[in-house]
Amino acid sequence: MADVLSQGEIDALLSAISTGEMDAEELKKEDTKKKIRSYDFKRALRFSKDQIRSLTRIHENYARLLTTQLSAQLRTFVQMNVASVDQLPYDEFIRSVPKMTILNVFEPFPLDGRFVMEVNPNIAYAMLDRMLGGQGEAYNKVENLTEIETKIMSQLFQRSLETFREAWLSVEELDPVMDDLEVNPQFLQLVSPNETVVVISLSTTIGESSGMINICLPHVVIESILPKLSVHLWMQAKKKDRLPGELHSLKSNLKKAPLDLAVELGKSEITIDEFLHLGVDDIIELDQLIDESLLLRIGEEPKYRVQPGKMKNHVAVQITDIIEEEGTSDE
């Protein structure tokens, strides 16, 4: 974006032109000169600005979802937000990672390849300490992880991948699965050193500990779904595609909602004095005749007429009639 001149700078420029200190024609010539911008072929920019913006939105959603999940799971203060989204060679990413850190390698099925999530040891050990009942203190012993610590961390990060899947649903239905947990980046070779990757950095605070979580997405792995990262497709086509699935899920969950059913055997009115003197073997006469159907209520609303009986040695009722709601019957 071009620099905007202040009013003082504009006045000084006009004054210099009017006094002859600057030549207006020379300024015009400078504007018509071809502007040359340097380009480093080792840092090939293979992601468009539109795609970078879409990836930013996806992982902003991921940060919000993961904040909620970890807050409930660790029972402590958790805050995460996207600090930066950059594209750079894979070799440069590996060199920027600490010599000893937590590297979660996972496969984003059905995509062919692997992603990696690099978690700062301060953050990883604060989470581990909370999982084991501690205060969430950060200490670094990443060079000698025990089998128990490795297992707990792997399970913790596998749960975070379920949130990753949810964040990506607006673009692609991924099924990420943990492949490996590594501590030395020199032993990790996802793609060739010159391959372009996009690195999403999440600024993370857990309790009193803070650090970065970096998610590395190689271009070669997500190349097949890059067209779907278009804002036009994401905001319109994908929203329409997901609608039937959302309705199906909503209907499925609604059908599982429990309902309270109650059958009235009849009603009776007695005085308070009679109620206070009720005892064992006393009989209360109901206003319901034995050959009349009973009323079945759903919640507080009368819905069916039923008759009592038994089914497999259990008390049951059989529906004999449906009570029409007011305003629903045909006139």
UniProtKB/TrEMBL annotation:
InterPro entries linked: CheC-like_sf, Flag_FliM, FliN-like_C, SpoA-like_sf
Q: Name one GO molecular function term.
A: cytoskeletal motor activity
Q: Which residues form a coiled coil?
A: none
Gene Ontology CC terms: bacterial-type flagellum basal body; plasma membrane
Task: Give the record's GO biological process terms.
Answer: bacterial-type flagellum-dependent swarming motility; positive chemotaxis
| Main subcellular location | other
**Where is it localised?**
Bacterial flagellum basal body; Cell membrane
Q: Which family does it belong to?
A: Belongs to the FliM family.
Which Pfam families does this one have? FliM (PF02154), FliMN_C (PF01052)
In this protein, which residues make up the domain named Flagellar motor switch protein FliN-like C-terminal? 253-323
Protein name (Swiss-Prot/TrEMBL): Flagellar motor switch protein FliM
How does the record say this protein sits in the membrane? Peripheral membrane protein
The organism's lineage is:
Bacteria, Bacillati, Bacillota, Bacilli, Bacillales
Keywords of this protein's UniProt record, alphabetized?
A: Bacterial flagellum, Cell membrane, Cell projection, Chemotaxis, Cilium, Flagellar rotation, Flagellum, Membrane
What is the originating organism of this protein?
Salipaludibacillus keqinensis
